[in-house]
Amino acid sequence: MAKEKKQKDQKEQPVAATGKKGKAGDDAKVVEEKVPARLKEKYFKEIVPKLKEQFGYKSIMQVPKIEKIVVNMGVGQAVQDPKILEEAVKDLETITGQKVSVRTAKKAISNFKLREGMKIGAKVTLRRERMYEFLDRLITIALPRVRDFRGISDKSFDGRGNYTLGLKEQIIFPEINVDKVTKVLGMDITFVTTAKTDKEAYELLNAFGMPFRKKEIN
Fold first, then answer.
1. Which helix (H) or strand (E) element contains residue 29?
2. CB 116 within 8 A of CB 105
3. Rounded to an integer, what distance in angstroms lies between the CA atom of residue 38 and that of residue 60?
4. FRET pair for 192, CA 20 to 30 Å: which of 13, 22, 174, 204?
5. Least confident stretch, 25-29, 56-60, 158-162
6. What is the pTM of this model?
């Protein structure tokens, strides 16, 4: 009886965060909770106070933030070669660490042999920790690897506080093994913010370290 009770107690003990897994994903959750993303900490400790003073917000709730980052790969060539879409999905999942959704054509275009419902792209929406981690890797690792990089344009704001960055090659991300790439693919990265103006959105992204060519916009 004592032996059975000891075994039962051992089974009921919680798994400590030592790298040994209990239920699938337990350790990942512990890491996310105990080690906040670097840029998330920077936002609350540095960026919020800076923007609050700069724009004269009365409350920190008025300070703009990044709500989500949407990464989209349009793969028109998939109409002729479906394997290209498979590569896009695989690469996008490797880069973002998140499951990708496949985009389909909403209407047929006969000139391009495109039928309604055909798979033509891949998209992923990042929020919370993964969003901040992706932004960190984009700024510190990926963008500096762009050939002849001289900063990003400030002309891609949409007038509502959102910004879209176009990249020509997925291979700038270190997670991609260049030797295994069969097709170089571009992507659009959209930063959806709560900013009411492009000026506020610019200052928000600039404070995170986005390497704009110009130091400020009107």
1. helix 26-34
2. yes
3. 20
4. 174
5. 25-29
6. 0.74
Give one DSSP letter per residue of 30-81, joined into a string: HHHHHS--HHHHHIIIIIHHHHHHHHT-SSGGGS--EEEEEEEEE-GGGGT-
Element (H, E) at 104: strand 101-104
Cα separation values, 81 from 23, 76, 134, 214, Å: 40, 9, 29, 40
Task: For residues 57 and 102, give the distance between their C-alpha atoms in angstroms, rounded to a whole number.
Answer: 40
Which positions ≥6 away from 173 have C-beta within 8 Å? 94, 95, 137, 141, 142
Q: Is 97 left (phi over 0), alpha (psi -120 to 50) or beta?
A: left
Where do the domains of the chain lie, and which CATH numbers do they carry? 35-208 (3.30.1440.10)
Q: What is the tens place of the pLDDT at every residue in 34-85? A: 556 889 999 999 999 999 999 999 999 999 999 999 998 876 564 555 677 7
Tokens of 85: 């879409």
Radius of gyration of the chain (CA): 22
Q: Which helix (H) or strand (E) holds 131?
A: helix 128-137
The residue type at 150: R
Spatial contact of 69 and 192, defined as CB atoms under 8 Å apart: yes
HSE-CB at 69 with a 13 A cutoff on CA atoms is: 20
Element counts in the chain: helices (H) and strands (E): 7, 5
